[in-house]
Amino acid sequence: MTTITTGTDQLTRDALAVLQPGFAGTTAPDWVLRKVGEGLASVALFGRNVTSAPQIAALTARLRSERDDILVAIDEEGGDVTRLEVRTGSSFPGNLALGAVDDPDLTRAVARELGRRLAECGVNHNWSPSADVNSNPDNPVIGVRSFGSDTALVARHTAAYVEGLQSAGVAACTKHFPGHGDTAVDSHHAMPRIDVDLDTLNARELAPFRAAIAAGAKSVMSAHILLPALDRERPATLSPQILTGLLRQELGYEGLIVTDGIEMRAIASTYGIERGTVLAIAAGADAICVGGGLSDEGTVLRLRDALVAAVRAGELPEERLADAAARVRALAAWTHRARGASEPGAASQEGTAPGTDIGLVAARRALRATPQDHPPLTTAPYVAVFTPGANIAVGDETPWGIAAELTALLPGTGTGRYGADSAAADVLAAAGERTIVAVVRDAHRHPWMTQAVDALLTARPGTVVVEMGVPRAAPRGALYLTTHGAARVCGRAAAEFITGATGR
User: Fold this and answer.
1) Confidence (pLDDT) at 352
2) Alpha-carbon Rg of the chain, whole angstroms?
3) Cβ–Cβ contacts within 10 Å for residue 8, how many?
4) Selection from 211, 201, 199, 227 nearest residue 172 by Cα
């Protein structure tokens, strides 16, 4: 598309203001800095932008030298989805672990400490928490990212998470409206469809979002899902009935509405990113997330120019674009005021002061063992990790499992990774006489994984089984542990229990 704007008029500035683009590299590119000067009000960070906390702080400081109130967004859920600790695994368990403990004060404290660390790095807008009710256990993209399958539990922990995160001066983003939990398709790949009636949506999907709104959530992220009970033609991200009619008018939400990644195939393959961007803003969205896959200046120019052209053609009301840009700037102003103004001492639960291991405390509390009194392992085992394909939200960059943590406690621990084409005989040959620790992730969704573990248990009844995904299978093995997530601290908690180390 030919550039049709000068970069100086208000319409162009508004079009830039509604974009939340990503970029490549660990420093701010010149093109991003130029666009900030031209009106860009937000940027998004992904795992590719992160090497360390000091590096992120330097990057965000450079951005703020161009615009002091810039929104710096990140997808930092803790647990399986981490960007701050993308290379090591998270210091915080994810939502399912917090839901398993079911202590809203703990959830609030974990979110506050996560928010404190984000704020220290200069990040002030977190695309978290997931308020999805994981009603479909075979959901390929939500799973442990949800607090659970019980609506009331998800609602109370969503509210606690929002309160904790925002008490640290970081804007929460409750997602994926109006609820992605009952899907069997990953919207990164195709368009999911939820065929339930309005009563079910109101009672199940919407309750956590109502709780988030009541808790003061500063932003909500839309889902690229089709819900015929609300709109037969357009997915939520592009639906005026859902974003304006339901979220704004019926639920009374006044904060920022940001889309899920506009280049995800559910939108890009059906509408194209330019048309999708225009339709999303027209439907009631205020900010367009882009950059998970497309992270170049050309993409930003294409989306900016598509918005300007739509206004000039009469397809997008100029006042709608201006209103969206105003909401972005209002959230930026809130984060600017909130920076450094979080209340001291707000985290009253023991072990929640800055610098403490509240994440490990939570992971230990989330661990479940059958039986409880299994004798500790004292010799180095062999850890067999059965690895499913990672979904795009989680990615495959972040290490997971318990081998590293067991090695720290029992030097000499061996390990190997096994896929769908592996056999139990491969594990037995590699393990030799050592005790086998079989680590699985969502075994109920992967028949090959279940069959491999069953074969191991037949050959070695003393095998320990650790489920680091959604625990749906019946307990089996000499010891069966469920961690409710694959964060690094979840692995640490499991290793401590297996060996009888401190923290058991």
Assistant:
1) 40
2) 23
3) 9
4) 211
Secondary structure (3-state) at 265: helix
Task: Give the pLDDT confidence of 345-362 residue by residue, as tens digits.
Answer: 333 343 444 445 999 999
Give counts: helices (H), strands (E), the chain: 18, 14
State how far the Cα of 103 lies from the Cα of 263, in Å rounded to an integer: 37
The pair of structure tokens assigned to 187 is: 């919207």
Rounded average pLDDT over 397-419:
94
Phi then psi for residue 442, to 5 deg, are 55, 50
Please answer whether residues 84 and 121 qualify as being in contact, where contact means their C-beta atoms are separated by less than 8 angstroms: yes
pLDDT digit string (tens) for 216-267? 999 999 999 999 999 999 999 999 999 999 999 999 999 999 999 999 888 9
Distance CA 323, CA 472 (A): 46
Is 188 an active-site residue?
yes
Instruction: Single out the catalytic residue among 180, 188, 224, 446.
Output: 188
pLDDT of residue 408: 96
What separation in angstroms does the CA of 229 have from each of 169, 180, 185, 271?
37, 15, 18, 21
Helix, strand, coil percentages for the chain (3-state, nearest 5) = 40, 10, 45
Whether residue 437 contacts residue 499, with contact meaning beta carbons closer than 8 Å, is answered with: no
- pLDDT band of residue 190 (cuts 50, 70, 90) is low
* Per-residue model confidence (pLDDT) at position 141: 79
Take residue 101 and report the two structure tokens written for it: 């403990």
Can you give 349-369 as a three-state secondary structure string? CCCCCCCCCHHHHHHHHHCEE
Answer yes or no: 260 catalytic.
Answer: yes
Half-sphere exposure of 318 (CA within 13 A, CB side): 11
- Residues 126-151, mean pLDDT to the nearest whole number: 91
Question: Can you tell me the mean pLDDT for 172-196?
Answer: 78
Residue from 14, 80, 231, 260 carrying the catalytic annotation: 260
Q: Is the pLDDT of residue 5 over 50?
A: no
- In what helix (H) or strand (E) does residue 43 lie, and over which residues does it extend? strand 42-45
The whole-angstrom separation of Cα 369 and Cα 377 is 14
